[in-house]
Write a structure and sequence with these properties.
heterodimer, A: 423 residues, alpha+beta, four-stranded mixed β-sheet, two-stranded antiparallel ribbon, 7 strands, 7% strand, B: 101 residues, Alpha-Beta Plaits, globular
Chain lengths: 423, 101
């Protein structure tokens, strides 16, 4: 290989992999030594070579690269704060009743969708999402804060570390278990086929429908990809549970509960991003509404399947952390169920809100007459500009960022390169 | 000259082979994101400017088949490039290489 091609090799791969106008540098784990210790422990324990980078001035995302110079994990600065927001939202949701129980999660999910849609180069739909939000002016929820340090400090250390570590470990898990395109939905994890997690609800239903679910899943779920996600989830659950229990000296049940809670946050956020990817395709005309609805259903089934697989592994992990025999994990089933049920109210409200937001945005994306471009829509709307300004601050943009310029640049598929040197 | 491509995984090996056959040096990395989008491959390519004329028709054929997600030539990066855009970009690069405005 010529010296010019290998010069700044990793940085050149990262620079090209990230969507413009993102910037990047070595990850400093938001200055938290515990998260750094966790990543180093996982690296050493599993002999996984990976360099971790952080990207900013960009929407929440994770990119994994495998260049010849070694694996690279690039997480956007915004991802951690988004996970913390999910955690805060889930905590406070059960305190709301009536309309607020619907409006609070809806408002937050639309904001996240707006961020993801900016990442999919569709700021017009991002504006739709922000404009569809219920007006909660005056309600001091304390979920949303554009400043990274303040957001990270807004929840106790243990759940915050669990969220950050789970996210890191999940991605490292993808390096440990790369996609295997030969796998199908009858692949077994912990003694059960993936399909048995997917058709579980249908099997409990007296009206049946098992065959229909199996047929649908076989046709529309990307089995190797789902299995790769499941293995990454399980890897992360084990790593985080053990780390919190052993290094963090937490009781095994607390450690497992925190790891499960972090997993739910990650799956929800990724699910939200996937919906936005589909909506962006719908808006571009590259996907029909009928296919979108099908993909949404497939994603939903896959999401539930992941949750079931991780619940089962949590019982095994708890048995091991308590020094017991994994074969007796059945006695942990009611304990894991109890942990999962704690957030049942919030989970239900979040799922309903997600479904409603996805439906409304898909309708907006396919509406015959699209609203004018963001320049025109933002010109007279100072409130919306301010909202977007704070979103860009949360992305890690400098205080002087011009909202309209950023969105114009973000929507463009043509870029003249800026200097994106690492720091 | 250096160029960078992001291409669909299913055709990445073919593209790399063709580029090498045309005299290019290629370094590849697979890329995956957190959403459900399919894995892609990034290729950093080093070619002599004189070989560029051989590479451009190859590039255009992959672009026609919608296999190139992103391309970078010089200081310009284009997502989902069209044939016209790449031809213009190449002309622009050659002009710059000759020191023309």
């Amino acid at each position: 290989m010529s010296p010019s091609l290998s010069d700044g090799f990793t940085e050149r791969f990262i620079s090209f992999a990230l969507a413009q106008p993102a910037k990047f540098g070595r990850e400093n784990f938001a200055g938290d030594p515990i998260v750094e210790i966790f990543v180093n422990t996982v690296r050493v324990s599993f002999s996984i070579e990976v360099d971790v980078y952080v990207a900013w001035e960009c929407p929440p995302d994770v990119v994994i690269l495998t260049p010849p110079s070694g694996n690279v994990l690039i997480r956007s600065e915004r991802l951690d704060t988004l996970l913390v927001e999910f955690h805060r939202l889930r905590e406070i949701l059960p305190t709301f009743g009536g309309e607020l129980a619907r409006e609070v999660p809806t408002a937050q999910i639309y904001r996240w969708m707006a961020e993801f849609l900016i990442g999919y180069r569709n700021s017009s739909l991002a504006l739709d999402a922000l404009e569809l939000r219920p007006d909660l002016t005056g309600l001091q929820l304390g979920i949303w804060n554009p400043f990274r340090d303040e957001t990270l400090a807004s929840i106790p250390q243990a759940p915050r570390i669990a969220l950050q570590c789970f996210s890191m470990a999940h991605e490292i898990g993808h390096l440990r278990y790369p996609d295997d395109r030969s796998l199908d939905l009858y692949y077994e994890i912990d003694g059960l086929s993936v399909m048995s997690h997917l058709d579980y609800d249908a099997r409990q239903n007296p009206d049946g429908g098992v065959e229909a679910i199996r047929k649908f899943a076989t046709h529309f779920i990307d089995a190797p990809q789902l299995i790769s996600e499941m293995r990454a989830d399980l890897f992360a659950l084990e790593c985080v549970g053990e780390f919190l229990s052993e290094t963090g000296s937490l009781a095994p049940e607390t450690a497992v509960a925190l790891a499960l809670s972090a997993c739910e946050a990650l799956i929800f956020v990724y699910h939200c991003k996937e919906i936005c990817r589909l909506i962006a395709q719908l808006a571009s005309g590259s996907m029909e509404r009928v296919d979108y609805d099908r993909m949404r259903l497939a994603d939903q089934i896959a999401w539930v399947g992941r949750a079931r697989a991780i619940g089962r592994r949590a019982g095994l992990l708890l048995a091991r952390l308590e020094g017991g025999d994994e074969r007796n994990f059945a006695r942990n089933v009611p304990r894991i169920d109890a942990i999962i049920r704690r957030d049942e109210t919030a989970r239900l409200l979040l799922e309903q809100a997600m479904g409603m937001c996805a439906e409304a945005l898909a309708d907006a994306a396919t509406a015959g007459l699209r609203p004018p471009g963001h320049d025109e829509r933002l010109r007279d709307k100072a409130d919306l500009r301010l909202e977007l300004f704070y979103i860009l601050i949360a992305f890690g943009c400098p205080g002087g960022v011009d909202v309209i310029d950023y969105l114009r640049n973000a929507d463009s598929s043509f870029h003249r390169l800026e200097d994106r040197t690492t720091s | 000259m250096q160029l960078a491509l992001e291409v669909d995984k299913d055709i990445a090996d073919d593209i790399e082979g063709s580029l090498r056959q045309a005299g290019a040096e290629v370094a590849s990395a697979s890329k995956r994101n957190l959403d459900g989008a399919l894995e892609t491959v990034i290729q950093l390519v080093e070619i002599a400017t004189t070989t560029g004329a051989t590479i451009v028709p190859l590039l255009l054929s992959w672009i026609t088949r919608k296999k190139v997600r992103k391309i970078r030539i010089g200081d310009i990066e284009i997502e989902n490039p069209t044939e016209e855009q790449v031809e213009q970009l190449w002309e622009r690069y050659l002009r710059q290489d000759r020191g023309e405005p």
